[in-house]
Amino acid sequence: MSQIKKIGILTSGGDCAGLNAVIRAVVNSASKLGWEVYGIKDGTNGLTDDTLRYEVLTVHNYSDTPWPRLSGSYLGSSNQGVKMESLEAMSQRFHRGVKALGLDALVVVGGDGSMNIVSNYCKGTDIRMVGVPKTIDNDTPLTEFSVGFDSACQVCTTAIDSLSLTARSHSRALILEVMGRDAGHLAMHSALAGNADVCLVPEVPYSIDGVINKLKEIKKSGRNHAIIVVSEGLKTENGEHLSAAKNKVGEAVYGGIGQYLSAELNKRYGEFQTRVTTLGHVQRAGEPTSFDRKVAALFGAKAVELLAKGEHNCMVLWKNGHVSAAPLNEVVKEGTTLLNPQSDYVRAAEAVGMYVGETK
Ligand code: F6P
């Protein structure tokens, strides 16, 4: 028997659509077992700050509101960018917070970074943790999908659809810069869905000449417009990362590769006028798609089921249409999952005529 009476739930890292649906699934499943659910505010900060911040979540005060259908995180989240004390000091704060609230277990909704950090906080303690993967980058290891990815793809695909229409009106090559950090999943999936002409991702080498050849081919075919999707983590031809800003601990926040591409295309091939759209944080705030809501429900319910069975220190995941779980140490060991240049997605993109870089 798990002997659980009270659990905590927190959302950590960059937000995305579907987080509130995960919270609902956890609140509902846990309430059915008679457990109390404490929603921890602002990621791990609600447990590690001097003043603990939380809210008791019930079916009545949380699930029966519109929140579960909205994007963002009802509880708030914390991304990197906060200077942390040593791991030891943070673990102690975390442990103190969990004990002070009397939590028997914790559901952590986060990406690979959060799984790593929180599992380190829990190491060597008796805190029972289950992770639920979420991120628009879809780079959490061992799971085919993370909550939020499909909704972000939808935002990008809608943007490509709109851009295609104005590109045609003005005979332009329009460049769409999308998020994803070092992973090209978001760019490739939405380029495929939106029927883009070019998709450049960090995992596949490319050349500006390759892009120009594709634009020439389009011109020759009689078409006057093109759509280029570029992932923010793509490097310049010289191998440089471009960054738009820095977070509070001095790490680069990627941005600017779309403008670089535009300038290079104008310099070397002026046949298409170019313009750049950088979608930015709107990608994290679209309406949760039905797929994300479904995955959120499955993941949330599974997390509670595992805890009820006495299983913890694991992350729920989606593989081959089924929900299962993997030990956290395996998740952490695996690290960020990048787009495989040989994947079906990249091959399909090439097969339908997209320039995706030099895959061979
Ligand atoms: O990891 C999610 C993500 O949206 C990335 O795609 C992006 O690079 C980053 O977060 C942006 O972070 P911030 O919210 O700090 O601007």
Question: What does this entry show, briefly?
Answer:
The chain contains twelve helices and 13 strands. With 360 residues, it is α/β, with parallel strands linked by helices. The termini are far apart.
Which strand-content bin applies to the residues?
15-25%
Shape: elongated
Provide a count of the helices. Answer: 12
**Structural Rg:** 22 Å
Distance between the termini: 54 Å
Fraction in helix: 25-40%
Spatial order of the strands in the main sheet? 3-2-1-4-5-12-13
Number of E strands: 13
Low-confidence stretches: none
Mean pLDDT metric: 95
| Associated small molecules | 6-O-phosphono-beta-D-fructofuranose
Blueprint of the fold:
Layout: E1 6-11, H1 19-32, E2 36-40, H2 45-48, E3 54-57, H3 59-63, H4 87-101, E4 105-110, H5 112-122, E5 129-133, H6 149-170, E6 172-178, H7 185-194, E7 198-200, H8 208-220, E8 226-231, E9 243-246, E10 252-254, H9 257-268, E11 273-278, H10 290-308, E12 314-319, E13 322-327, H11 328-334, H12 344-351
Parallel strand pairs: 1-2, 1-4, 4-5, 5-12, 6-8, 6-11, 7-8
Antiparallel strand pairs: 2-3, 9-10, 12-13
Helix pairs in contact: 1-10, 5-11, 6-7, 7-12
Task: Describe the protein.
There is one protein chain. With 360 residues, the protein is an alpha/beta fold. Helices cover 39% and strands 19% of the residues. It has twelve helices and 13 strands. The strands form three sheets. Strands 3-2-1-4-5-12-13 form a seven-stranded mixed β-sheet, with helices on both faces. A four-stranded parallel β-sheet has the order 7-8-6-11, sandwiched between helices. A two-stranded antiparallel sheet has the order 9-10. Helix 8 (208-220) links the parallel strand 7 (198-200) and strand 8. Helix 1 (19-32) runs parallel beside helix 10 (290-308) and helix 7 (185-194) runs parallel beside helix 12. The termini are far apart. The mean pLDDT is 95. The structure holds 6-O-phosphono-beta-D-fructofuranose (F6P). Residues 14, 79, 135-137, 179-181, 232, 247, 253-254, 284 line the site of 6-O-phosphono-beta-D-fructofuranose.
